[in-house]
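User: Hi! I'm working on a homework problem where we have to compare a predicted structure to a textbook description. Could you give me the structure for the chain below?
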Amino acid sequence: MTRTRTRRLALFLTAVVLAGSAATIGYLLLAPSASSLPSPSSLLGSGLPAAPEHADGEVPDGTTVFDDDIPAVGNLDPELLAAVRRAAEDAAAEDLTFFVNGGWRSAAYQERLLREAVDEYGSEEEAARWVATPETSAHVSGDAIDIGMFAAAAWLDEHGDAYGLCRIYDNEPWHFELRPDAVTEGCPTMYWDPTYDPRMTGGSISEE
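Assistant: Happy to help. Predicted structure tokens:
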């Protein structure tokens, strides 16, 4: 091999080595550090909503009166829940499902709903027509259930007295409570809204 060819080969090899070194240095400068790389768990969860917390009585979509694992259902008064389930089993013969929009609630969750109602309706007085305080709410004590879907609520409104289940408020066609005497005496007269209910001011409910 001639000296000229040897020199050219050496220059070529040197250029290759330098180019490789430059590429390596560039990668090291531009590549993210290990601490900035996303973890596998964050990649798997990317774009997915966090699992909701229902311990305070929030009701996930699709909840029925048979979902004991949902606190809003499982923490209801046992006699109320048993009556609602008997009604739901009979209503199922007419292709109706008793979905739950509201059931048992913690005092903290009820307070949050009340604050939201005040913001929505503009005053505590107007909000009181729809949401009770934690101290007076039948939801907090586990004594009330809100039935989702109009057809199911309408069915229970019509047939509920046979199970001891009654609507309490004229403005809330979804809200039912247990009134055992209704089986023989029929449901008591409804209040126009919760502000007419004496329980909201510390009284007892009328059975008329």
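For your comparison, note the following. The longest strand covers residues 144-148. The two ends are 117 Å apart (CA to CA). Good luck with the assignment!
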